[in-house]
Structures are given as C-alpha cells and as structure tokens.
Amino acid sequence: MSTSRQSLSRRSFGRLAAGVAGAAGLGALGACASPRGKPSASTPLRIMAINHVWAQAIRRSTEEFEDRIGRRVSITMLTGDQLASSYNVKLNASGTDVDVMMVRALQEQLVFAHNGWLADLTDRVEQDRDFAWGDFQPAPRNASVTAGKVLSVPVVTERPTLYYRKDLVEDLGGPPRTLEALMDASLELTDRGKNFFGYVGRGQRNGAVSQWSSFLYSHGGDFLVDGRSAIATPQALAAYMFYGKLLAKAGPPGATNMNLEQAMPIFAQGKAAFYIDADAIYSSFLDPKISTVREKVGFAPFPAGPAGARPHNIPSWSLGISTFSRLRDESWEFIRWASSPRMVAAIQADGIPGARASAWNDPKTLAAFPPELAETMRLNAERGIGYDRPRVLQVSRARDIIGRPLVAGILGEPVEPVVRDANAEFADFLVRDNRHREN
Q: Which UniProt keywords apply (predicted)?
C-alpha cells in the first residue's frame, strides 16, 4: 500500500547531490551491462520485497517458479523503512546480492534511475508478445517509465475510495456524487457534542498530500505544469481551501496529526460518516475485530469536482531488476511470471488489486471484492491519473512543502498567503531538484 511511503535518507540525497551515489545517469541505463561471471546453480535468485500481502501470496507460489527455472528463490520481506535502508546500503556498494527489487515507482524510481540502480526493461516488455505489456492499465504503465525507459512493472495498484455509512445517507439520496455534495453532507452530519464527525481523512502535512491529490485533480489543478510549480493556480488554491474546510468544519480534533493509521480507526469505530482513502484497506472495515460498521459500510467512487471525477490510480508497488544482478535473465523470468495475466488474475481473485486490464474485466477476479467496491474500483481505475505526488527526485521534501497550506486550512488559518509562500519555496526546490538530476 501507499501508506508506508518512506523516502531515501537525507544522507543519501547528499551523496546524490555530490554526484557520488550513482556512477550512471539516466542516459546510461540502457548500456549498463550485467557484472561478469554467471553464479553457480546453487546461488538463489534473491528478491527483496515489502512485507505486503502481495509478496506473501507470491512466496506461497514460488515452488512452481523454482521448478521452471531450476534455481532456488530467496525472498526477503522487510518493512518499508528496512527495505529503503537495505537498498541504500547494498546498491550504493554495487552489491550483487539483490536481483529483483520491489519498489515504489512514484516514490523511489526517479532517484533509483538517476543512481543507475535499475536495469532497462523496455525491450523485454515490448518485444514479449505473451507478456502483453499493453494489457497493463495506462496510468500505472506510464508510471513505470522514466526518461523514456521502462524500469519497473506494476504489481499492486490502489485508488481512493469514498467509504460511507449506508445508514446515514438514506435520507440524502445515497452517497455524494460530487465534492460539493460531500461537503454539504459532511457538515450536516457532524455532531461534535456527540463526538461524531461528518468526515475523517489524512491531515498530516506530508502524508495528506497523496490523498489530497485527487481533490487537486478534480478541481482542475496539478502539482506541476510544464515543469513549474502549479500549486498557486486558482484551481490548486480552491482545492486547498476545500480540503481545509472539510476537515476543519467536519473533521475530528487533531486532524493535522492524522495519517492513515490515525484516521482509519475513527471511521472503523463508527465515529465518522465519510472517509476517503486507499481502496486496498477496505477489508479493515469488514473485519469484526477492528470494525463496528461492517454491516453499514458502503463504497463509492471518488466524487466529481469542478473538473469532474479525477482520482489517482497508481502502482503502489512494482518490480524492477537491479543493475548489479548477475541473474538478469532469471530476474526477468520471475517478473514475467509474477506479473503474468494468469498470476495477476489469481492474486486479484484473492482480493489484491493488480494492474492488468484483463483482470479488471474478468468477473471472476472481482468476485473477492464486495460488488459495490468492485464497481467503484473499476470506475476509479478508468478515470484515474497515474501519480498521487509530484514526479521529482526528493519526493518527501516536495510533499512537506506542498502540505503546508493543507495544515493551514485545517487549522482554520488564511490559506492564500501560505500558498504563496509554499509556491515560492516549491519553485526554488524544483530548480535545486533539477540540478541534482544533472549531477
């Protein structure tokens, strides 16, 4: 899931700016050759992954793949922080003990590409007809490309879903279909005296940006336009003010400290009418050990704003191949197998959303999801934009800057002057970020 979004360390970025971290730039990716010397047959194919339900599902099926290639597969599963730290250590040292890498294309791929850590997969995905690269949804497929090169293959996707209380919207004509209707219903249902809130959502400065992105797009805005900051446009300002008002007037106290882990339990415990967050967390609201609203929770597409309904549809996790791997062919065979139409359909049928259009068009793969949620996910995927944060090297720093006006709005402070200041800071950041890319 996109909720565990840790960026590379500041020390790593310092090395990056100094030109020490990576010997190869973007233009050299295709020319990177595998280190000489094929490992012995006893050397396992080493895969580093996030401890995620997708990785767990794949690990249960690896015996089938081992029989195919005649080589043992070793999967190391870590937390997000541990995985980022391990990549920093191993790949900065040009370590050959990593073959397949589970990466966040929107958080890490650009800097990994700059460092020369990811092998170019373009020829492999485009020339393999059976792999059917065109079967992947356009938004996550496009997010896999950096500087014209395919550097990863998406395996897990997510979109924002409007979770709502079915028992509370009956008199409102059903779940809100527009952001304006969401605002009105949230304000109407808020009862602070009873500790009940119309809306709950992420409000923490850095963490809220990814969910706010869909509000931004649906207001007609974006993070960047022609490579320049766009967070002070009228559309972006309107999105900032809308989101701030929604949480300030209809949200719980302390919203500016809330990320997924703090916001989700409020809805799960029946203390909020509406909640927008990743569709991948839906099972939490159906789990009797966690949720008191499992009989009352509904699922709806992201509401339309002035520019229509424009949610994000992102690859939360993808697979790439380490430039330093001595088992590149075997690594590609693993990716080819793990993201094949057959495996994607099987894993999605267990409730883990993939990136292939064929899986989303197969009723059997959607049977694991509640029907209302399956349709919600399908619509959001069709409408989706393939990123939920700016496409820059230093993603976490960019999110900190962009999140400042969100916090101001939630605290009820004037938003426009904070937007002006954040826009100037973001513009300066983009100049420095581009300089990093050139080093």
A: Signal
